[in-house]
Amino acid sequence: MAALLPYSSCFPRIGSASSPPPYPIGFFYGVSDWSKFGGYVSGGAALEKKKAPIGSQSVARVPPVCRAAAPSSSNVFRDLDADDFRHPLDKQNTLLLRAIPGLNEIGKALLGSLSEQIMLLENIGTSVLVSENQLPELYLLMTEAASILNIKSPPDLYVRQSPVPNAYTLAISGKRPFVVVHTSLVELLTRKELQAVLAHELGHLKCDHGVWLTFANILMLGAYTVPGIGGMIAQSLEEQLFRWIRSAELTCDRAALLVAQDPKVVISLLMKLCGGSPSLADQLNVDAFLEQARSYDRASSSPMGWYIRNAQTRQLSHPLPVLRAREIDEWSRSQEYKKLLNRANGANIVKKV
């Protein structure tokens, strides 16, 4: 039987969606699945840049997070709605859940307060709460990302010691959501990449993914209780649920791009989650990683390749990193994305005048 996952995580660990989450209550975002919703800085090397080979993207090593971040020059989406950037499959499945009368209110009433309180106490007791006076650079990155995405009240941000690069979010009742990032993720990424991770998590909050995922799980678990064909129905629902979760991750990658406003930033962090490390960061090449994604498409285009690809991905909670990189590259060149940028740019110009 599938586990109930009221949590949302954006950078998953390698493995299937059925892998146990790091907390008793949760829904995560990760690498081969990026994890489900997922830093704290344990030190940080001095900012260090090296010349990269021609055609590659130079990636700076992450500095300590004790200094104020430079003001962001990104366009701010002052009237942005979740459906403005929601992936089509995510939009389709969310509409189906919204059509069920009373599901929203019942789910929040039953699940919100208990799970939120458990996770709140867990993080207060074992993590560092980020604020203007505690890791202020991370605080600035979060508040800037929230402002760009038109989120009025940013969630709390916690940094947690862990060797597994990850970030995750809890938001069920909607009263006090929070994001947790692991120290190893902070060490791995540049400031811009880390802000893109935070934007991805904010995307889950803006789209209410944690709430809708919980409802979908309830429906699936309920199907298991139906005698006879209940198991078959539940398995079908489970596959559809994983398909939707994967599309929700693509939605939040779009949120990351809306904040970064540079597709190479988002693709670079996906590449690092695949096979990056602080010592190798300046040798990684975004263009080569995109070519790797295209080679995966070519290798899986035959009937046998399609079958293997489907078998590899059908039980994953997150799309494969190479596919996420290709998807964000394509969306960055779409008219939909360009119209959003133009709309934000126009609104910002009007406000300045």
UniProtKB/TrEMBL annotation:
GO terms for biological process: proteolysis. Its cofactor is Zn(2+). InterPro entries: Peptidase_M48. One of its GO terms (molecular function) is metalloendopeptidase activity. It holds the Pfam family Peptidase_M48. Keywords: Hydrolase, Metal-binding, Metalloprotease, Protease, Zinc. The keyword NADP does not apply. Coiled coil: none annotated. Residues 141-331 form the Peptidase M48 domain. Belongs to the peptidase M48 family. The keyword Chaperone does not apply. Binds 1 zinc ion per subunit. It comes from the Eukaryota. This is Peptidase M48 domain-containing protein.
